[in-house]
Amino acid sequence: MMKTPRLEQCAPRVAIGRTIFGETFDWIAGPCAVESAGQLRCCAETVRQCGVSILRGGLFKPRSSPYSFQGLGREGFELVRAIREEFGLAFVTEAVDAESLRLLLPLADAIQIGSRNCLNYALLKEAGRSGKPVILKRGFAVTVEEYLNAAEYLALEGATEIILCERGIRTVTEVTRFTLDLGAVAWLKARFPMPVIADPSHAAGEAALVAPLTLAAAAAGADGAMIECTPEPGNARSDAGQQLTLEQFVRLLEQTENILRGRSAPC
Ligand code: PEP
Ligand code: MN
């Protein structure tokens, strides 16, 4: 029997910068990986213009192939710090181990634990002690029960501000990169207090599928979405196929409004 007493006491509202998850539908957007000041500045401009206040961008990238771009690491810190301050945005990024977590604390307004580290209990304990809100991605081969146990590790170390993020799991479907488990989103929302968001970008693996999956997540009751976007997706050093252009991201926000209006209508 699953034991998650701490998780059941978690905050239903989680503040990251000015955004409070758990009230309406909130966005986290930006590139897969921080690549250059020019790229991140364009993303920050668009994000702010849209009224979104949280920028994302990987500095330490857990790539499937050791030969792929691993992120700028510490080299990217200064450009992130400058853009975060200039635009007054909150910044969310992934910690891949205890060392990167420690380094990111002054820079990140929330710590992301990625799919590949969802069951890294040592890292979960560190993140739970960090004092920062934690966005825990579901491992792509992790059951809901295992996922909740992972989140309980965070809560047991003192984290109360936890956001769960469904980002797709491995199923028999091969036409999308992963299967966005919206049943799990609805199930979690019905039983646990903390916000649950979706990451349609990593589930889709293809830019054209990001909008329909985002709309479906909004309709299923998600508290928000994390979207990868970048000025020139074709030239991105990671996840080129799934990143939206900045124009596509703006359009996605508009499209989602229709679903959100329907969601708040009385039954
Ligand atoms: C990411 O959000 O940058 C990422 C690597 O996602 P995931 O851990 O879900 O694969
Ligand atoms: Mn990515």
Descriptive keywords:
single chain, 267 residues, alpha/beta, six-stranded parallel beta sheet, two-stranded antiparallel ribbon, 9 helices, 10 strands, globular, binds phosphoenolpyruvate, binds manganese (II) ion
Mean pLDDT: 97
Helix/strand/pairing category: alpha/beta
Largest sheet: 6 strands, parallel
Write out the strand line-up for the largest beta sheet, numbering strands in chain order. Answer: 4-5-6-7-8-9
Query: How much helicity do the residues have?
Result: 25-40%
Uncertain spans: none
Radius of gyration: 17 Å
Assembly state (oligomeric)? single chain
Report the count of strand segments.
10
Report the span from N to C terminus: 35 Å
- What is the succession of H and E elements? EEEHEHEHEHEHEHEHHEH
* Molecules bound to protein: phosphoenolpyruvate, manganese (II) ion
Q: Assign an overall shape.
A: globular
Beta-sheet strand percentage?
5-15%
Enumerate how many helices there are, as a single number.
Answer: 9
In short:
The protein is an alpha/beta fold.
Characterize the structure shown.
The chain has 267 residues and is an alpha/beta fold. The chain is 37% helix and 15% strand. It is built from nine helices and ten strands. It has helices at residues 37-49, 77-87, 98-104, 121-129, 144-156, 182-191, 200-204, 207-219, 246-263, and strands at residues 14-16, 19-21, 26-30, 54-56, 90-94, 110-113, 134-137, 162-166, 196-198, 224-228. Strand 4, helix 2 and strand 5 (90-94) form a beta-alpha-beta unit. The termini are far apart. The structure holds phosphoenolpyruvate (PEP) and manganese (II) ion. Manganese (II) ion is lined by residues 32, 202, 228, 238-239.
